[in-house]
Structure formats: structure tokens, C-alpha cells
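re: ur question from yesterday

yeah so i grabbed the chain u mentioned. its 442 aa long if i counted rite. heres the sequnce exactly as i have it in my notes:
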Amino acid sequence: MSENPYQSLLLNIADHFVENIPTHDTSEQYRNITTLIRIHNDKLAKLGECSFSCKPEIWSKYFPASEGYQIVEHAFELLNETSEENRQDLLNEAKAWNFPVAKLEIEQERCHLHLQRSCIMKSLIQQVLCSTNMFGNMRKTQKRFVRLKPLQEYGLSYQDISFYRAQIVHQTLRRLLVLSQWPIVDDLADCHPVMDINVLSVASKVSQEFAPDVSVTIKCGLVTDPLRKGRVCQLPTEEYLSLRSNNMCLMALHKYGVRVKQDARFCALMKRLGSAAVTVDLLEVRNSSPVQIIRNGQGSTKGASFILYNSARLESLLRTFEERIDRRIYDPVPEINDIDYSLLKEEEEWQMAFAYLAGFPDLIDRCLEQLDRGLCATHLIIRFLNGLVAVFSVYYRRVRILTEKREQLMPYVYSRILLIRAVREILNKTLSLLDIEPVEFM
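ran it thru and got these C-alpha cells back, copy pasting raw so excuse formatting
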């Protein structure tokens, strides 16, 4: 079972500057710490991987003495010294962290930590590739159980697209819970306390709110139509699925240069792409907010097509690599421990590893961190996917991954292929949260 690497890093930092942080209830502690210590997902060479205020008085607001916390004033004094030697205290302690720190910089009263990339890169790639599909499956706690109630129509038609949105949220929530720290139960036998979770569309005709003390209701906003000036969409779900399938076919033809074929395989692919596009359309904003369908070019259509085009691009790259091995152009990949991960020095390589390989368990936590308040941040999954494929797309265009077979170049090929395999695992695992199949060709 996985831990959240970000949570481990931030708790390590907090423990250096604050005494009496409890070791239990780390999820609630982590939620507080994330408002104080910022994890960076881009511009990592400039900003470092995380940063935080150097002012102890700001830390005191989050860790007040009245609640038993004690700020380590000496640690802040050393941090604010201009001498590198005095700042070594933190660096020495950080050598034992799961994510060791290479250097720190102070700028505008904030401390920016730069991590030791090579050893972290090696650890993350190996964890993802060697965890037998368990990377991101969080360790279950027994503090509280959850029961996800079956989705009810409550007066809505099954073909109502607002109900379809609630259906997608309900199914995505169940997949998130399977990976999360929350144990799921189907009945109340010998399990307490249990939090019942209801998912419903605000368009539902419900006579009264659910009232049990242990129950939360996740409300899904209306689906609106730009042709009806933002009023509720009347287009049946099947028609919208067909519309988006046609949109994806045209985009594949005109934007990505895909040759349209009228065979069963291509038609099945376009149907899958249409379904994926609808899922992305309906989840790209907070589920409690209204969302507008894509119609006649009104709205953003890049999401699903860009994600799945890069999924196909990634699969094609790995397939080409395997074909070169089969044709004996390349030798087989060395053992995973024999790869030289220090060769992965491109900025996009590190960003994919830190922001997305390490960031996947954090995605699960962030989607569910306010579940007890009836909030499920499924829109973060779309944001995560868009960010990952955007970085991969830049990397794919800028770096030649499969080179000619030369002794000095093959170590680069092997290290990059293992990184891309790990990226594929995370991309596919994230797509599976949405019940979207990866695309092998486009």
C-alpha cells in the first residue's frame, strides 16, 4: 500500500520547525500544513519543489501555543542566517527524509527547497513499475467507514443529462474510495461510525433533504445548454454522446491528421472518444457547479481529444520501442536496478516524476479531503490529466527519445523508456478513475 509522498515531505518539514505535532490524524494535520507549505508543480528549477514562510509568527497562526504546539525558534534563526553553514542544520536532517533536500534558497522571506532529483526519480519509477498496480492505493484507516448509497433517479429520466452527470460522479467517487484511506462497507454490521454518502443532481425532485447525522449529500449541479441561453439542457444523453463522438471524429481528421476509416474498429474508437469527451465535459468544473455542454463550437473542446491523443502518442512510442527490440535493433532493457536514472536531467522528466508520479496519491487525497462536508473534487482529476499530458507533449516534441543504437546513447534510451512506462501507468490509472480506456492508436 502507498503513502502520499507529498504528505510525508510536508510532515518532515513541519516536524523540523514545530514540536508536539501528533503522529496520529495525519490527514487533518496535512490539510492544515498544505496551506502553510506550498508544493510546486511547475517552474521547479526556479521555485524548487516546495516553499514556505521563514517567519515564525506566521507558523504560530497555524500551530498556536494554545493548542499545545511549540515553534522551534532556533530552527528559524538558523534558517534566516545569511551563512550557508548555519542553514546546514535543515539540510543535514533532510538527508534521512524519503525526499532528501539538495539545497535551500531564501527569497522574499520564503524558503525554497530543491530536492535531490536523481535518487527520488529512481525511487518513484521503481515504486510505480514494481508495485503490481498498487501504487496510489492508500493504506486504509479504521477511524471511520463509508457507505456509498446506490444512485437514485428521484423523478429524473434516465436519459436526462443532469442525471448522467450525477451517475458519472457517483461512479468516479466509488473508484476514488477504493484507492483512498476510507474503508467501504455495504451494510452497518459491526462497523461504526459509518458515514453514508448520497449523490444526487440538484435537478432531482426530492421532497426533503437527507437528515441522518452520519449522512452527507454530494450535490451535482445542472447541465446547461448554450443554445438555450444557459438554461437546463434538454438534449437526451444518447444524443449528446453521439454529438460529441462526431465532434471527436472531425477533430481527429482536421487537427490531428487522422485518416477517417469506415471500419468497425475506427467507429468503435470514435464512440469511445465521444463517451470520454462527455465525461471530461461534465467533470471539468466542480461537481456542485453548473456545467455547460459543448455545442456548435461554443466551449472548450481541447480536453478529451488532447488527453487521448497524447495517450495514443505514448502507446505508439512504447510500441515502437518494443518492435525495435523484437527486430534486434535494440538490446532488451536492463534490469530495473541497473538503469542509470541520473541521466534523466531534462526539466520535463523531473516535472513528470515529481508533479505526477509523486502527485498521484496526493490527487486521491485532495479529491476526498472534504468528503465529510459533502464535497468531492472530481474536477481535480481532469486538471491532473491535462497537466500531465501537457508536460508529456512538450517533452515528446522537444526530446528525441528513440535514437539510433550507439553505446553512449542507449543508457539514455533505457532510462527514458522506464520513465515513460511509469508515466503510462499513472496516466492509465488516472483515466481508469473516469472509466476511460487508454487509446492505443489515433
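noticed a couple things. The CA atoms of residues 249 and 270 lie 6 Å apart. also Residues 210-214 have pLDDT under 50 and may be disordered.
anyway ttyl
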